[in-house]
């Protein structure tokens, strides 16, 4: 199984973001989009999640909290571990701009 992973802030979601999502979705069996969220972001996380789910209805959309006891890297590890357990694979392909 080819699992695509996209990590970003999506402030805002724009054509470049949408293109990466489209390419990653085409090249992957499953697509995971991780939003890096901070309390001071000018666009609420709920809106960014809604945008990404509307544009990528088959993707798994998760968020990393900027104000967590865990670092962003540790949060990402936890998310990837949980998703890899759920999907039965730890083979991820990273897509980025």
Structural account:
There is one protein chain. The chain has 97 residues and is of the alpha/beta class. It has 3 helices and 4 strands. The protein has helices at 15-27, 45-55, 72-87, and strands at residues 3-8, 30-37, 60-65, 92-95. Strands 3-2-1-4 form a 4-stranded parallel beta sheet, sandwiched between helices. The longest helix is centred in the C-terminal third of the chain and has 16 residues, at 72-87. It is globular and about 35 Å long. It starts with a strand and ends with a strand.
Q: What's the overall geometry?
A: globular
Unreliable runs: none
Number of strands: 4
Tell me the strand order in the biggest sheet.
3-2-1-4
- H/E element order: EHEHEHE
Number of helices: 3
SSE topology:
Elements: E1 3-8, H1 15-27, E2 30-37, H2 45-55, E3 60-65, H3 72-87, E4 92-95
Parallel strand pairs: 1-2, 1-4, 2-3
Short characterization:
It contains three helices and four strands; from the N terminus they run E-H-E-H-E-H-E. It has 97 residues and is of the alpha/beta class.
State the main characteristics.
97 residues; alpha/beta; 4-stranded parallel beta sheet; 3 helices; globular
């Amino acid at each position: 199984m080819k699992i695509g992973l996209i990590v970003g802030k999506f402030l805002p979601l724009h054509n470049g973001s949408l293109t990466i999502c489209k390419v990653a979705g085409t090249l992957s069996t499953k697509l995971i989009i991780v939003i890096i969220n901070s309390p001071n972001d000018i666009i609420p996380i709920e809106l960014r999640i809604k945008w990404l789910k509307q544009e990528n209805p088959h993707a798994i959309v998760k968020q990393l909290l900027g104000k967590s006891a865990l670092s962003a890297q540790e949060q990402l590890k936890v998310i990837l571990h949980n998703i890899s357990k759920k999907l039965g694979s730890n083979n991820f392909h990273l897509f980025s701009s």
